[in-house]
């Protein structure tokens, strides 16, 4: 017969294994699955342990499946994405000044009332 203290320690290791099932790396997930096995071999699971460990395993499986199906697209192969520079401000029409709500005349880049400018100085 195995001591109850050892069974509880193995249960702790099994719960840690369930948490490892949520990792990004497949090798860590495999280690997590192997950490559950010693507790299963040492003594039969109680009903509460089955519910806790089973729900964790089911949640981890859904996490892996959902993550593989709906993973965000990474950068394209061949290097980093190239960013296009922003377009120049359209100064062909008058604009409202964001600082004082005055009017910036067409063709100007500074507000005549307060001196605020769209361009960095």
Q: Mind explaining what this structure looks like?
A:
The protein has three helices and two strands, in the order H-H-H-E-E. By secondary structure, the protein is mainly alpha-helical. Helices cover 47% and strands 3% of the residues. The chain has a two-stranded antiparallel ribbon with strand order 1-2. The model has no long low-confidence stretch (mean pLDDT 83). The protein is rod-shaped, with a radius of gyration of 30 Å. Strand 1 (95-96) and strand 2 (103-104) form a beta hairpin. The longest helix has 23 residues, at 47-69.
Q: Main beta sheet: strand number and arrangement? A: 2 strands, antiparallel
Distance between the termini: 80 Å
Unreliable stretches covering 5 or more consecutive residues: none
The number of distinct β-strands equals: 2
Estimate the global geometry from the Cα principal axes: rod-shaped
How much helicity do the residues have? Answer: 40-55%
Q: Which structural class should the secondary elements be placed in?
A: mainly alpha
- Whole-number average pLDDT? 83
Strand order of the largest sheet: 1-2
Helix and strand pattern:
HHHEE
Strand content: under 5%
Annotation field: number of helices: 3
Instruction: Determine Rg (CA atoms, Å).
Output: 30 Å
Transmembrane segments: 6-23
Protein name: Zinc ribbon domain-containing protein
Keywords: Membrane, Transmembrane, Transmembrane helix
């Amino acid at each position: 017969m195995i001591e109850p203290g050892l069974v509880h320690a193995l249960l702790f290791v099994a719960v840690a294994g369930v948490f490892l099932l949520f990792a990004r790396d497949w090798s860590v997930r495999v280690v997590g699955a192997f950490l559950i096995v010693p507790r299963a071999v040492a003594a039969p699971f109680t009903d509460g342990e089955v519910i806790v460990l089973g729900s964790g395993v089911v949640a981890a499986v859904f996490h892996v499946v959902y993550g593989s199906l709906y993973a965000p697209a990474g950068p394209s192969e061949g290097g980093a994405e190239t960013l296009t520079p922003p377009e120049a401000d359209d100064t062909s029409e008058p604009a409202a000044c964001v600082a004082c709500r005055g009017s910036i005349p067409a063709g100007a880049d500074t507000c005549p009332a307060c001196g605020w400018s769209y361009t960095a100085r």
